[in-house]
Amino acid sequence: MFISNAYAASASSATDLMSFLPLVVIFVLFFFMIIRPQMKQAKEQRNMIAALQKGDEVVTSGGIVGKVTKVTDTFVSVEIAANTEITVQKQAIQSALPKGTIKSI
Q1: I need a labelling partner for 4 at 20 to 30 A (CA). Which of 12, 44, 53, 65 fits?
Q2: What is the pTM of this model?
């Protein structure tokens, strides 16, 4: 008598699509701002490690600067001083330096 009847709203596919739109937009932004640059950086690192050769000047992940003297499949020998060589894994090479950097240090 005093209470009016409540009816269910009709289902609309446009409303369902609009509710997922913010989630899709966040995923696209996440991909282009975080995932894609990380994939690009990892690819550049892999290419740099694959291109290592004798005579390259490198920096290890521990901060050691030296010249590559020997390259194998998984290890690299790096001369850090006269008659002083260390052997590190290829993955420990952080970056390759331009030629002549060690002399200028």
Answers
A1: 12
A2: 0.72
Element (H, E) at 43: helix 36-50
Element containing residue 18 per DSSP (H, E):
helix 13-30
CA distance 47 to 85: 24
Nearest to 86 by CA among 105, 63, 104: 63
Residue 105, classed as helix, strand or coil, is coil
pLDDT by residue (tens digit) across 47-88? 999 999 999 999 999 999 999 999 999 999 999 999 999 999
Closest CA to 80 of 63, 66, 99, 68: 66
Q: How far is CA 39 from the centre of its chain?
A: 5
Whole-number average pLDDT of the chain: 90
63 CB-near residues (< 8 Å, 6+ apart): none
Cα(37)–Cα(103) distance, rounded to whole angstroms? 33
